[in-house]
Amino acid sequence: MLREAVDQLPAPLRLMAGYHYGWWDSTGRPTPGRSGKGLRAALVLAAAAACGIVGPTVVSAAASIEMLHNWTLIHDDVIDADEMRHGRPTVWRVWGSDAALVLGDAMHAMTIRMLLDLPAAQMAEAVDRLETVTVELCRGQYEDCLFESRPSVTVGEYMQMVGGKTGALMGCACALGALCAYADAATIGAFDSFGRELGAAFQAADDVLGIVGDPAVTGKPVGTDLIRRKRSLPVVAALESGASAAVDLDELYRSAAPMTNTEVAQATQLVAACGGIDWAQQHAQLRAQSALAALPAGAATAELAALTQAAVRRVQ
Amino acid sequence: MLREAVDQLPAPLRLMAGYHYGWWDSTGRPTPGRSGKGLRAALVLAAAAACGIVGPTVVSAAASIEMLHNWTLIHDDVIDADEMRHGRPTVWRVWGSDAALVLGDAMHAMTIRMLLDLPAAQMAEAVDRLETVTVELCRGQYEDCLFESRPSVTVGEYMQMVGGKTGALMGCACALGALCAYADAATIGAFDSFGRELGAAFQAADDVLGIVGDPAVTGKPVGTDLIRRKRSLPVVAALESGASAAVDLDELYRSAAPMTNTEVAQATQLVAACGGIDWAQQHAQLRAQSALAALPAGAATAELAALTQAAVRRVQ
To answer: Is the ipTM reported for this complex over the cut 0.90?
Structure first.
């Protein structure tokens, strides 16, 4: 379904979209490139299955969520000046930021068009949920931009930002699965809460990877978040820890220039010394438990439990 | 309705959106600033009225089209590095291009949410038309970007680009008006053709203003398109004219640096000497006539004729 949607784009945009998905290289030659994890699509399918439904309607919704996630990634890479994703140069790095902006806009449009095949009773609510969550994502992304120019960010402010940037979309994915399965409003709400908690867990785990992740697994340079002095969860927690190493870490975060390799190694040690990495790992586990606890009785299927583990296992 | 939609945005995005619309300054203080012309919204209302319907449904559709037009302007200003719109600094110039990118994405989402109040029978088609046209706009905008790095552009290529960049949205506005008035598919198609022709006429007139327009009227610097060596219709027509002045104009367009004031004055004279300005003015008139001819019998109301005149009168 994603390939069908991409096929409907005009030629130059189609080329870029398929490159982003890892289906072909920048000249259009098929490659065995890595795509994303497809976690959000899997959540739609697993949530619908937990509510007793599988079938083509649910697949449309899953593909649409995946398309939404990907156009926001393409825009986020422009904003964050990220040069690598899935082990290859990002779209803006290959075709320029103007092209990446336009491609994201066109994929936003396709995201919505993919929902128009849903039964009438569900379609309006599905579109409303996706576009409401899009506004939340934009709010989260903008807060994230503002963080970069601020002298300090509290753990509370960070959680609020991540709620918009990651939690809202995972909540929407799970709610959409329940909606496609004709669940009642309370059940849809419970699945939304599950997804939001899972998103918080996932982001905490992802933030740990941004500091100590293996480039062969993440597809990004080692210490990628530290290089840009990003105030990710382990860093924010470390700075708030009151540990003596926090003073040195704060010093390192005061400059605006990208960190050198030596500084990245130093910062990694300081974040660890303040307990920031352990705290973020523990936080990921706690939010994962809280996610499962939010599910309606009997809805915690083996699939949903496995996806929850997959989202946080990455840091164990 | 636009204000209600903007009110639903999170605070920092709401501030930027209202600034863009000219409702308040960059700190939120109400201003008597100029908004856009509202031509596309007027086309929705006039098309629906020509098909016999007025009312709140049509106003939703009109407000949605206007929101679509404005988020694409906010993104286009980033891409084209345009610093002024409606006589004030553009959103990216005030808050940075990252903020403008995120604001455009959030307004894209609101564009679609505004259509969800339409009667069920019309809503799915309306959303489909808007998002299909969005992909066309992206295609047109991308082609326009590519033109800037090309040594030459034919009149035919220019027309194709403008069809996506301006014609598609005006066609969609008129089709949407007819759709809200429960018109049949043939009538909707005729209104789409009317809008597309009108869009071509409007863009030709707008391109003339980009060369000889009064800054007090356009809100942009004099010769704004020439400064950036934009290959707008009068320029493309002049270069294709075979006139001897075309050789000198071609020479001026070979450099990549912004034109100096002297060069802008020189280029303006050369475009005029090649007949480029006259040709574009005539083309605007021809396409305006062709627009009215595309309307179904009896549908060319005084309102639609007046809007058609307004779109091209600007150059007379």
So the answer is: yes
Strands (E), chain B: 84-85, 88-89
At A150, which CATH number?
1.10.600.10
A274, part of any domain: yes
Give the pLDDT confidence score for residue A316 in this predicted structure: 42
Whether B210 maps to a domain, the answer reads: yes
Which regions in chain A score pLDDT beneath 50? Answer: 315-316
Work out how many domains chain A is built from and give that number: 1
The whole-angstrom separation of Cα B15 and Cα B8 is 11
Q: How long a stretch of residues is chain B?
A: 316
Q: Is A159 on the interface with B (CB under 8 A)?
A: no
Please check whether residue A148 is in contact with residue A230, taking contact to mean a CB–CB distance below 8 angstroms: yes
Residue B316 pLDDT grade (very low, low, confident, very high; cuts 50, 70, 90): very low
Domain boundaries, position B274: 2-23+37-313
Segment B133-144 shows an average pLDDT of 95
The letter for the amino acid at B76 is: D
Q: Which of B200, B270, B199 is nearest to B229 (CA)?
A: B270
Distance CA B229, CA B146 (A): 13
Tokens, residue A161: 């930002």
Beta strands in A180-263 (DSSP E): none
pLDDT of residue A314: 64
Cβ <8 Å between B127 and A112 = yes
Both tokens of A236, joined, read 């924010």
Phi/psi region, residue B30 (left: phi>0; alpha: psi -120 to 50; beta: rest), is beta
Tell me the residues of chain A between 104 and 143 that have a Cβ less than 8 Å away from chain B: 104-106, 108-110, 112-113, 116, 120, 123-124, 127-128, 131-132, 134-135, 137-139, 141-142
Q: In the predicted model, what is the mean pLDDT of residues B138-156?
A: 90
Please state, in angstroms and rounded to a whole number, the distance separating the CA atoms of residues B240 and B130.
35
